[in-house]
Design goal:
With 328 residues, this protein is α/β, with parallel strands linked by helices. It folds into two domains: 210 residues, Rossmann fold (3-Layer(aba) Sandwich), CATH 3.40.50.150; 82 residues, Orthogonal Bundle (DNA polymerase, domain 1). It is built from 15 helices and nine strands. The strands form two sheets. The chain has a seven-stranded mixed β-sheet, with helices on both faces. Strands 6-7 form a two-stranded antiparallel ribbon. Helix 5 packs parallel to helix 13 and helix 8 crosses helix 12. The radius of gyration is 21 Å and the shape is globular. The chain starts with a helix and ends in a 7-residue tail after the last strand. The structure holds S-adenosylmethionine (SAM). The site of S-adenosylmethionine has 19 residues, from helix 3 and strand 2. S-adenosylmethionine binds next to helix 3 and strand 2.
Length: 328
Protein backbone atom coordinates (compact mmCIF):
# COMPACT_ATOMS: atom_id res chain seq x y z
CA UNK A 1 0.00 0.00 0.00
CA UNK A 2 2.77 2.39 1.07
CA UNK A 3 4.83 1.67 -2.07
CA UNK A 4 1.79 2.19 -4.32
CA UNK A 5 1.21 5.56 -2.68
CA UNK A 6 4.85 6.49 -3.04
CA UNK A 7 4.84 5.52 -6.71
CA UNK A 8 1.66 7.54 -7.27
CA UNK A 9 3.19 10.52 -5.48
CA UNK A 10 6.44 10.27 -7.45
CA UNK A 11 4.61 10.19 -10.76
CA UNK A 12 2.58 13.24 -9.71
CA UNK A 13 5.70 15.04 -8.52
CA UNK A 14 7.69 14.25 -11.64
CA UNK A 15 4.92 15.38 -13.92
CA UNK A 16 5.00 18.79 -12.19
CA UNK A 17 8.08 19.67 -14.18
CA UNK A 18 5.87 20.28 -17.18
CA UNK A 19 4.45 23.80 -17.02
CA UNK A 20 0.66 23.77 -16.84
CA UNK A 21 -1.34 24.99 -19.87
CA UNK A 22 1.92 26.21 -21.38
CA UNK A 23 0.68 26.63 -24.96
CA UNK A 24 -2.36 28.63 -23.87
CA UNK A 25 -0.24 30.83 -21.61
CA UNK A 26 2.14 31.65 -24.48
CA UNK A 27 -0.73 32.26 -26.91
CA UNK A 28 -2.54 34.60 -24.50
CA UNK A 29 0.57 36.52 -23.48
CA UNK A 30 1.77 36.61 -27.13
CA UNK A 31 5.33 37.68 -26.25
CA UNK A 32 7.03 39.83 -28.89
CA UNK A 33 10.60 40.96 -29.44
CA UNK A 34 11.48 43.73 -27.01
CA UNK A 35 8.64 43.03 -24.56
CA UNK A 36 9.04 43.30 -20.80
CA UNK A 37 7.54 40.24 -19.03
CA UNK A 38 7.00 39.86 -15.29
CA UNK A 39 6.72 36.26 -14.06
CA UNK A 40 5.38 36.38 -10.49
CA UNK A 41 5.90 32.65 -9.81
CA UNK A 42 9.12 31.62 -11.54
CA UNK A 43 9.43 28.19 -9.85
CA UNK A 44 11.65 25.97 -12.00
CA UNK A 45 11.26 28.32 -14.97
CA UNK A 46 9.08 26.04 -17.11
CA UNK A 47 6.75 28.80 -18.33
CA UNK A 48 9.66 31.23 -18.38
CA UNK A 49 11.61 29.22 -20.93
CA UNK A 50 8.64 29.11 -23.28
CA UNK A 51 7.75 32.78 -22.90
CA UNK A 52 11.31 34.19 -22.98
CA UNK A 53 12.02 32.52 -26.32
CA UNK A 54 10.08 35.26 -28.14
CA UNK A 55 11.62 38.30 -26.44
CA UNK A 56 14.94 38.63 -28.30
CA UNK A 57 17.98 40.50 -26.99
CA UNK A 58 16.01 43.72 -26.36
CA UNK A 59 13.35 41.98 -24.27
CA UNK A 60 13.45 41.74 -20.49
CA UNK A 61 12.27 38.82 -18.30
CA UNK A 62 11.70 39.78 -14.66
CA UNK A 63 11.27 36.70 -12.46
CA UNK A 64 9.87 36.70 -8.92
CA UNK A 65 9.70 33.87 -6.39
CA UNK A 66 9.63 33.71 -2.62
CA UNK A 67 11.46 30.36 -2.59
CA UNK A 68 15.29 30.60 -2.65
CA UNK A 69 15.48 27.33 -4.63
CA UNK A 70 13.87 29.18 -7.55
CA UNK A 71 16.92 31.46 -7.64
CA UNK A 72 19.08 28.43 -8.54
CA UNK A 73 16.77 27.52 -11.43
CA UNK A 74 16.84 31.15 -12.49
CA UNK A 75 20.65 31.19 -12.80
CA UNK A 76 20.50 28.35 -15.34
CA UNK A 77 17.60 30.03 -17.17
CA UNK A 78 19.47 33.35 -17.36
CA UNK A 79 22.49 31.59 -18.87
CA UNK A 80 20.36 29.93 -21.54
CA UNK A 81 18.15 32.77 -22.84
CA UNK A 82 19.11 35.71 -25.04
CA UNK A 83 16.85 38.31 -23.42
CA UNK A 84 17.84 40.44 -20.44
CA UNK A 85 16.88 38.93 -17.10
CA UNK A 86 16.36 39.92 -13.50
CA UNK A 87 15.39 37.86 -10.43
CA UNK A 88 13.71 39.37 -7.38
CA UNK A 89 13.23 37.20 -4.27
CA UNK A 90 10.12 37.87 -2.22
CA UNK A 91 6.36 37.70 -2.02
CA UNK A 92 4.96 38.80 -5.37
CA UNK A 93 2.51 41.14 -3.60
CA UNK A 94 5.45 43.19 -2.24
CA UNK A 95 7.67 42.86 -5.30
CA UNK A 96 4.98 44.02 -7.75
CA UNK A 97 4.44 47.14 -5.63
CA UNK A 98 8.22 47.67 -5.64
CA UNK A 99 8.36 47.36 -9.44
CA UNK A 100 5.56 49.94 -9.77
CA UNK A 101 7.52 52.31 -7.52
CA UNK A 102 10.58 51.79 -9.71
CA UNK A 103 8.52 52.91 -12.71
CA UNK A 104 8.75 49.53 -14.48
CA UNK A 105 5.98 48.82 -16.99
CA UNK A 106 5.28 45.37 -18.46
CA UNK A 107 3.79 44.01 -21.67
CA UNK A 108 2.85 40.75 -19.96
CA UNK A 109 2.43 39.54 -16.39
CA UNK A 110 1.95 35.87 -15.52
CA UNK A 111 1.02 34.11 -12.27
CA UNK A 112 1.02 30.32 -11.90
CA UNK A 113 -0.23 30.02 -8.34
CA UNK A 114 0.33 27.43 -5.65
CA UNK A 115 3.06 24.94 -4.93
CA UNK A 116 5.76 23.74 -7.33
CA UNK A 117 7.42 20.42 -8.12
CA UNK A 118 10.68 21.55 -6.55
CA UNK A 119 8.82 22.08 -3.28
CA UNK A 120 6.84 18.82 -3.31
CA UNK A 121 9.85 16.85 -4.55
CA UNK A 122 11.92 17.87 -1.53
CA UNK A 123 10.53 15.78 1.34
CA UNK A 124 12.42 17.81 3.94
CA UNK A 125 10.27 20.85 3.06
CA UNK A 126 7.28 19.09 4.64
CA UNK A 127 4.78 19.70 1.79
CA UNK A 128 4.22 16.01 1.12
CA UNK A 129 2.09 13.52 3.00
CA UNK A 130 3.95 10.67 1.25
CA UNK A 131 7.17 10.78 3.30
CA UNK A 132 7.84 11.49 6.95
CA UNK A 133 9.59 14.84 7.50
CA UNK A 134 9.40 17.95 9.69
CA UNK A 135 6.02 19.64 9.25
CA UNK A 136 7.19 22.86 7.61
CA UNK A 137 5.47 23.89 4.32
CA UNK A 138 6.98 27.39 4.16
CA UNK A 139 7.67 28.43 0.56
CA UNK A 140 9.93 31.13 2.00
CA UNK A 141 11.98 29.51 4.78
CA UNK A 142 12.33 32.98 6.31
CA UNK A 143 8.63 33.09 7.24
CA UNK A 144 8.15 33.06 11.01
CA UNK A 145 5.39 30.44 11.18
CA UNK A 146 5.60 26.86 9.91
CA UNK A 147 2.80 24.31 9.58
CA UNK A 148 3.97 22.71 12.85
CA UNK A 149 3.56 26.10 14.59
CA UNK A 150 0.02 26.47 13.24
CA UNK A 151 -0.93 22.93 14.25
CA UNK A 152 0.58 23.52 17.71
CA UNK A 153 -0.97 26.91 18.45
CA UNK A 154 -3.90 27.82 16.18
CA UNK A 155 -7.34 27.82 17.82
CA UNK A 156 -9.42 24.76 16.99
CA UNK A 157 -11.95 26.98 15.18
CA UNK A 158 -9.25 28.31 12.81
CA UNK A 159 -8.00 24.80 12.06
CA UNK A 160 -11.55 23.65 11.31
CA UNK A 161 -12.23 26.67 9.09
CA UNK A 162 -9.00 26.22 7.11
CA UNK A 163 -9.63 22.50 6.59
CA UNK A 164 -13.20 23.22 5.49
CA UNK A 165 -12.60 26.32 3.32
CA UNK A 166 -9.08 25.80 1.96
CA UNK A 167 -9.19 22.01 1.84
CA UNK A 168 -12.91 21.37 1.28
CA UNK A 169 -12.42 18.65 3.88
CA UNK A 170 -15.62 16.92 4.85
CA UNK A 171 -14.32 15.88 8.26
CA UNK A 172 -12.78 19.27 9.11
CA UNK A 173 -14.33 19.43 12.59
CA UNK A 174 -13.32 15.90 13.59
CA UNK A 175 -9.75 16.39 12.36
CA UNK A 176 -9.34 19.77 14.12
CA UNK A 177 -10.62 18.22 17.36
CA UNK A 178 -8.22 15.28 17.09
CA UNK A 179 -5.24 17.59 16.43
CA UNK A 180 -6.07 19.70 19.47
CA UNK A 181 -6.36 16.55 21.60
CA UNK A 182 -3.07 15.11 20.34
CA UNK A 183 -1.08 18.33 20.55
CA UNK A 184 -1.91 18.59 24.25
CA UNK A 185 -0.50 15.08 24.77
CA UNK A 186 2.57 14.54 22.61
CA UNK A 187 2.71 17.34 20.01
CA UNK A 188 2.55 17.01 16.21
CA UNK A 189 5.83 17.94 14.62
CA UNK A 190 6.18 15.73 11.56
CA UNK A 191 4.15 15.04 8.43
CA UNK A 192 3.87 11.40 9.56
CA UNK A 193 2.37 12.40 12.90
CA UNK A 194 -0.11 14.63 11.13
CA UNK A 195 -1.09 11.83 8.73
CA UNK A 196 -1.58 9.46 11.71
CA UNK A 197 -3.82 11.98 13.45
CA UNK A 198 -5.92 12.50 10.31
CA UNK A 199 -6.27 8.76 9.78
CA UNK A 200 -7.43 8.37 13.38
CA UNK A 201 -9.95 11.21 13.07
CA UNK A 202 -11.77 10.25 9.86
CA UNK A 203 -14.25 7.36 9.69
CA UNK A 204 -12.63 4.07 8.62
CA UNK A 205 -14.05 4.02 5.04
CA UNK A 206 -12.48 7.45 4.36
CA UNK A 207 -9.06 5.87 4.93
CA UNK A 208 -9.66 3.56 2.01
CA UNK A 209 -11.45 5.96 -0.34
CA UNK A 210 -9.68 7.05 -3.52
CA UNK A 211 -7.07 9.73 -2.90
CA UNK A 212 -4.98 10.06 0.25
CA UNK A 213 -7.04 10.99 3.35
CA UNK A 214 -4.49 13.68 4.31
CA UNK A 215 -4.41 15.43 0.93
CA UNK A 216 -7.00 18.11 1.70
CA UNK A 217 -5.62 18.98 5.15
CA UNK A 218 -2.10 19.32 3.73
CA UNK A 219 -3.40 21.66 1.03
CA UNK A 220 -5.29 23.72 3.60
CA UNK A 221 -2.30 24.09 5.92
CA UNK A 222 -0.05 25.06 3.01
CA UNK A 223 -2.46 27.81 1.95
CA UNK A 224 -2.67 29.07 5.56
CA UNK A 225 1.09 28.91 6.26
CA UNK A 226 1.92 30.88 3.11
CA UNK A 227 -1.06 33.30 3.33
CA UNK A 228 -1.72 32.41 -0.28
CA UNK A 229 -5.13 34.03 -0.63
CA UNK A 230 -4.06 37.24 1.12
CA UNK A 231 -1.02 37.49 -1.21
CA UNK A 232 -3.22 37.03 -4.27
CA UNK A 233 -5.66 39.69 -3.03
CA UNK A 234 -2.81 42.17 -2.58
CA UNK A 235 -1.10 41.30 -5.87
CA UNK A 236 -3.84 41.51 -8.51
CA UNK A 237 -4.14 45.31 -8.53
CA UNK A 238 -0.38 46.06 -8.81
CA UNK A 239 -0.07 43.27 -11.42
CA UNK A 240 -2.67 45.01 -13.58
CA UNK A 241 -1.31 48.49 -12.85
CA UNK A 242 2.11 47.39 -14.13
CA UNK A 243 0.71 46.70 -17.58
CA UNK A 244 1.35 49.01 -20.50
CA UNK A 245 -1.62 49.78 -22.75
CA UNK A 246 -2.33 46.54 -24.56
CA UNK A 247 -0.44 44.54 -21.90
CA UNK A 248 -1.70 41.07 -20.98
CA UNK A 249 -2.26 39.51 -17.54
CA UNK A 250 -2.64 35.70 -17.30
CA UNK A 251 -3.33 33.83 -14.06
CA UNK A 252 -3.47 30.07 -13.46
CA UNK A 253 -5.21 29.08 -10.24
CA UNK A 254 -5.64 25.65 -8.68
CA UNK A 255 -8.33 26.29 -6.09
CA UNK A 256 -11.87 27.60 -6.42
CA UNK A 257 -11.16 30.31 -3.83
CA UNK A 258 -8.28 31.58 -6.00
CA UNK A 259 -10.18 31.31 -9.25
CA UNK A 260 -13.15 33.20 -7.80
CA UNK A 261 -10.86 36.09 -6.83
CA UNK A 262 -9.20 36.17 -10.25
CA UNK A 263 -12.53 35.98 -12.07
CA UNK A 264 -14.05 38.82 -10.03
CA UNK A 265 -10.96 41.00 -10.41
CA UNK A 266 -10.85 40.58 -14.18
CA UNK A 267 -14.60 41.05 -14.58
CA UNK A 268 -14.41 44.33 -12.62
CA UNK A 269 -11.60 45.60 -14.86
CA UNK A 270 -13.62 44.73 -17.97
CA UNK A 271 -16.73 46.46 -16.60
CA UNK A 272 -14.94 49.60 -15.44
CA UNK A 273 -15.03 52.36 -18.06
CA UNK A 274 -12.23 54.85 -18.55
CA UNK A 275 -11.47 57.72 -20.90
CA UNK A 276 -8.30 57.16 -22.92
CA UNK A 277 -5.60 59.79 -22.56
CA UNK A 278 -5.70 62.51 -25.23
CA UNK A 279 -9.33 61.87 -26.22
CA UNK A 280 -11.81 64.65 -25.28
CA UNK A 281 -14.28 63.32 -22.68
CA UNK A 282 -17.59 62.50 -24.38
CA UNK A 283 -20.05 59.77 -23.59
CA UNK A 284 -19.12 57.66 -26.60
CA UNK A 285 -15.36 57.80 -25.99
CA UNK A 286 -15.42 55.73 -22.81
CA UNK A 287 -13.76 52.34 -23.16
CA UNK A 288 -13.44 49.36 -20.94
CA UNK A 289 -10.32 49.30 -18.77
CA UNK A 290 -9.61 45.79 -20.01
CA UNK A 291 -10.69 43.23 -22.57
CA UNK A 292 -11.40 39.66 -21.52
CA UNK A 293 -9.14 37.24 -23.44
CA UNK A 294 -10.77 34.13 -21.97
CA UNK A 295 -14.57 34.26 -22.02
CA UNK A 296 -14.50 31.35 -19.57
CA UNK A 297 -11.60 29.77 -17.72
CA UNK A 298 -9.37 27.53 -19.86
CA UNK A 299 -8.86 24.05 -18.43
CA UNK A 300 -6.37 21.40 -19.52
CA UNK A 301 -7.56 18.67 -21.86
CA UNK A 302 -7.45 14.98 -21.02
CA UNK A 303 -4.08 14.53 -22.75
CA UNK A 304 -2.46 17.03 -20.39
CA UNK A 305 -4.21 15.76 -17.25
CA UNK A 306 -3.16 12.18 -18.10
CA UNK A 307 0.45 13.31 -18.46
CA UNK A 308 0.31 15.70 -15.54
CA UNK A 309 -2.34 14.82 -12.94
CA UNK A 310 -1.73 18.01 -10.97
CA UNK A 311 -2.97 20.09 -13.88
CA UNK A 312 -6.47 18.69 -13.33
CA UNK A 313 -7.63 21.58 -11.16
CA UNK A 314 -5.93 24.32 -13.20
CA UNK A 315 -7.99 27.30 -14.44
CA UNK A 316 -6.42 29.91 -16.70
CA UNK A 317 -7.90 33.39 -17.14
CA UNK A 318 -6.46 36.38 -18.96
CA UNK A 319 -7.23 40.03 -19.79
CA UNK A 320 -5.66 42.69 -21.96
CA UNK A 321 -5.38 46.23 -20.61
CA UNK A 322 -6.94 49.06 -22.64
CA UNK A 323 -7.90 46.97 -25.65
CA UNK A 324 -8.17 49.75 -28.22
CA UNK A 325 -8.50 53.50 -28.24
CA UNK A 326 -11.57 54.49 -30.28
CA UNK A 327 -10.69 56.63 -33.28
CA UNK A 328 -13.95 58.64 -33.43
C1 LIG B 1 3.21 26.41 -9.53
S1 LIG B 1 4.81 27.00 -9.17
C2 LIG B 1 5.28 27.85 -10.63
C3 LIG B 1 5.91 26.95 -11.65
C4 LIG B 1 6.48 27.71 -12.81
N1 LIG B 1 5.47 28.44 -13.56
C5 LIG B 1 7.21 26.75 -13.74
O1 LIG B 1 6.76 26.57 -14.89
O2 LIG B 1 8.22 26.20 -13.33
C6 LIG B 1 4.51 28.31 -8.09
C7 LIG B 1 5.74 29.06 -7.63
O3 LIG B 1 5.31 30.30 -7.12
C8 LIG B 1 5.96 30.59 -5.93
N2 LIG B 1 5.02 31.41 -5.16
C9 LIG B 1 3.81 31.05 -4.71
N3 LIG B 1 3.24 32.09 -4.07
C10 LIG B 1 4.12 33.12 -4.15
C11 LIG B 1 4.11 34.47 -3.68
N4 LIG B 1 3.08 34.96 -2.99
N5 LIG B 1 5.17 35.24 -3.94
C12 LIG B 1 6.23 34.76 -4.65
N6 LIG B 1 6.32 33.49 -5.09
C13 LIG B 1 5.26 32.68 -4.85
C14 LIG B 1 6.26 29.27 -5.29
O4 LIG B 1 7.39 29.36 -4.44
C15 LIG B 1 6.51 28.38 -6.51
O5 LIG B 1 7.87 28.35 -6.82
Amino acid sequence: MQSVLLAEWRSVAESHHEPVLAEDVVRLLSPRAGDVVVDCTFGAGGHARRIAGGLGPDGMYIAIDRDPVAAEHFRRFADDVVCQTRFIAGNFADVLAQLLDEGIRADAVVMDLGVSSMQIDAPERGFSYATDAPLDMRMDPGLATSAADLVAHAPEDDLRRWFRDYGEERYAGRIARELVRRRAEAGIETTGELVDAIRAAVPAPANFASGHPAKRVFQALRIAVNSELESLDSALTPAFELLNDGGRLAVISFHSLEDRRVKRFMRDRVRREIYPAGVPVRGDTAISEAEQLTSRAIQPGSEETDRNPRSRSARLRAVRRHPETPTS
